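Reagents: none. Just compute today. Retrotransposon protein, putative, Ty1-copia subclass.
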Amino acid sequence: YPNRVCKLKRSIYGLKQASRQWNKRFDDEIKKFGFTQNRDEPCVYQKASGCNITFLILYVDDILIMGNSIPMLQSVKTYPGKCFAMKDLGEAVYILGIKIYRDRSKRLIGLCQSAYIEKILKRYCMEDSKRGSIPMQEKLKLSKSQGASTPAEMKRMQNVSYDSAVDSIVNTKDMFLVYGGDLKRELKVSCYTDVGYLTDADDLKSQTGYVFVLNGGDVD
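Predicted 3D structure written out:
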């Protein structure tokens, strides 16, 4: 029918603008409720009222809410339900393949991706891989000249399983990132760095690495 369009009754992932329109509408609605968007992490929102604070984390249409006031959390959960069709799944146990562990007596929270790792290993038929201690050989010297250069070599490399890396993942899949635990210590952020001078054998560039630690757990 010329000069006519169809009105959709629900969002469809197939439309290229659907995710943007959803995010824009959610952003507008949640800000009406008093939330402000984090400048550096647009998917993180926060709302403060006196000494109470609530954080809302959005990933497409998955939402994680946390705060220090139960009544405030309940009101936050109720408001989006008035604007969108939502389901409250209760206290978070899994989110985006990450298992959440809590020990409230010791004020500890841990994050683990064992279920996700097992899913990936099974997909590539590598669930029976042996356990390894390190992801790669120590002090291994690598160069571009060792890499694949012809189409045939590149195709063959796609089928090479990096045993040491996979073995290391299998060995550490049940480990947790753990945060908190020290009731007397205030929130503390530490940074550790390392640098190697002229460590790249091909272009003589230096290399550096860093890790930020928040109350005992890596964050970046």
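Helices lie at 18-32, 70-83, 114-123, 151-157, 163-172.
Action item: order primers for follow-up constructs.
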